[in-house]
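In the laboratory, one determines a bound structure by crystallizing the protein with its ligand and collecting diffraction data. In a computational setting the workflow is compressed into a single prediction: the sequence and the ligand go in, and a structural description comes out. We illustrate the idea with zinc ion.
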Amino acid sequence: MPAVSLEKAQRIMRRIDTLAQYSAMDGMVTRAYLTAQHKAAHQQLAEWMQQAGLQTWQDEVGNQWGRLVSANPTQGTLIIGSHSDTVVNAGKYDGPLGVIMAIEALASLQGQALPFHVDVVAFADEEGTRFNTTLLGSSGVCGCWNPAWLDIVDADGISIGQALAEFGLEAAAIGQASRQAESLKGYLEVHIEQGPMLESLDLAVGVVTGIAGAKRYLIDIKGVAGHAGTVPLALRHDALCAAAEMISCTESFAQQQQIVATVGKCQIRGGAVNVIPGNVQFSLDIRSQDQAQLELCCQQLLEQYRTIAAARAVTINIENIYQASAVPCDAKLQAQWGEAVAAVTGKPAYYLSSGAGHDAMMMANITPMGMLFLRCEKGISHNPRENVQLDDVAVALACLIQMLHSASAW
Ligand SMILES: [Zn+2]
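The predicted complex, in structure-token form:
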């Protein structure tokens, strides 16, 4: 059975605390793309990578890399990593855990003959905190960088193009950050679960089956505004009552279909205490790991909205504002993570899907990808209360090291 080392896990935890200090705000963790904190955090990561015996470099998008060089590589390069950026007032573990654990895993492999190079990557932008565009770091690596993004501006009006230049990167060279699919062996990512499943099952880790696809809509309901005292109920076209019926229908539909659907925003336009709501807008976020099911559920749920609108004689306008396709994890890598988990924990692996997006979904464009989730306290993330247990970190590290050992035989 692979050794579980608390000492190594402690070092990971100490480094996570250290990295959390590279923040734009005192007392909280905020680290955005192409900022001074990004630069300083990556310099710190590069130092730890060098201590682990890795060759380091920064790519043209600002991602930090470290390579455990194989003396005689006969196969493609294996990439392990996660992201180093955070949301505003973030937790310490979302992203950095996967990067720092990868460095620790490679430190354990120093001096061992591998038939391939292993690269650790810290993706510089996953969250989209500064420019509202997610997965910029991994997009560059996958050759999916869109030159039009250079004109996207942050809250201060600074464009990505300007920010790259100020950071010391050349926008014209970004194409050089992309890695060729044929030169890669796969991509592995360890990440906190960001949900409550593993904790509810009392499990340290779980193997990810895929990343859910998501669609988002903006629903606009127009009824008829009127006096709250004079218009009898039977003659009303209350936009909020229609929206309320749709929202309630959303919950029961999602339960029936075993998907997740959320109305996170709802606004009465021109609302007042004595006015029948005439115009209501709400958002719908709907996700499934199965793309076909997602498409069908959207169709059926929106049809139910239309039926409710027709019955209440209000008009409904539905705008699709976002979509990301479901991405399954590689079947072989899932099985290998499963074997690693069973070897380390002595129990069969638990498999679960990811409702949140990750760099792995972008990396799937160029190489097989597999993910391992680690239990986080109460499923809380994107929040200073984000927390993980030392023992779980030790288990996840042992699983990752086991994966690297078994990778030699892939
Ligand atoms: Zn993350």
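Residues 83, 94-95, 126, 191 surround zinc ion (CB under 6 Å). Keep in mind that any predicted model is a hypothesis to be tested, not a measurement.
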